[in-house]
Amino acid sequence: MASLSAQIPLCLALMMAACLMIGINGSIDGAQREFDYFALSLQWPGTICHKTRHCCSSNACCRGSNSPTEFTIHGLWPDYNDGTWPSCCYRSQFDVKEISTLLDALEKYWPSLYCGKSSTCFSGKGLFWAHEVDIVLYFLYVSKLFSTKARKLIIASFLNLLMAKLGCNLEVGTNTLLSQYLPLLFVSIAFSLAEKHGTCSSPVIRDEYSYFITTLNVYFKYNVTKILNEAGYVPSNSERYPLGGIVSAIENSFRATPEVICSKEAVEEIRLCFFKDFKPRNCLASKTSCPKYVSLPAYVSMGREASESEIAWIPDDEAL
């Protein structure tokens, strides 16, 4: 039987190969079946920006008076009727030049509400939109916090679990994993997790320009912020609104049932669902994360105009 030192590189090679297969073939199991419907995910900046503790130029929450005050696009996601979704589909080279005429609109209506290095998105080929590599950013962030024993153990446990899933039942020491093998795993994951949602929209949407312009057009056609405002559901840090009333207001205009996602009692995300021809359809029924009465928090301005005691500004090269 091979020694432990010999087995570890083999297991890392298996993990890298698995990640590469995801990027090339669509999934570890090969090409994925065609999706069933689209979900347009809209995020409420008043809720998300309230959680902001660090600012950077890529975070729209930090633009002060120019920060978003209406629902913004989180993504247009292909989904399956069984509640799962395709991901890591066929790889393509993202070319920001293809969407150069859309950049102003994307900055306003599809902004990042988090800090993250744009060079890590789309395999370093493009910008943040659709946050295709959140997992990579998260582990890169955690990897910078190795000063505590607890975080070391969490990451080491994650790597050991991943190895076990690939048939490598090893228990590797924390320091060995973190110092020798974690950087290699980051490289393999970053290489494979690219254009996660847009490429899965084929054959309905076949290129990045079509993906972004289609998403923008659907967003403008079904203006959820306007629908709710006209029904009396306006941003407020004191009012609580009936969840059923918000859902009904959208149903009356959209002619289909949305999905509402909350963070505690605050609306964080609303999803509109569509058939492949972009006619409205009901979103899948699921257990709600919202209470009977919810809030639409008003936006609280952040950025350089805020005091240092309120929020910390960090440069992009140190962004999380």
TrEMBL record:
The terms describing its cellular component in GO are: extracellular region
State the PROSITE patterns in the record. RNASE_T2_1 (PS00530)
Q: GO terms for molecular function, please?
A: ribonuclease T2 activity; RNA binding
Starting at the broadest rank, the lineage of the source organism is:
Eukaryota, Viridiplantae, Streptophyta, Embryophyta, Tracheophyta
PANTHER family attached here? RIBONUCLEASE T2
Question: Which InterPro entries does this one have?
Answer: Ribonuclease_T2_eukaryotic, RNase_T2-like, RNase_T2-like_sf, RNase_T2_His_AS_1
Show the CDD domains listed in the entry.
RNase_T2_euk
Keywords, sorted A to Z:
Disulfide bond, Endonuclease, Hydrolase, Lyase, Nuclease, Signal
Which positions carry the signal peptide feature in this UniProt record? Answer: 1-26
Q: Which Gene3D superfamilies match?
A: Ribonuclease T2-like
SUPFAM superfamilies associated with the record: Ribonuclease Rh-like
- Write out the similarity annotation: Belongs to the RNase T2 family.
Q: Which organism is it from?
A: Gossypium anomalum
Q: What is this protein called?
A: Uncharacterized protein
Does Nuclease show up as a keyword for this record?
yes
Q: Which GO terms describe its biological process?
A: RNA catabolic process
Would the keyword Membrane turn up in this protein's UniProt record? no
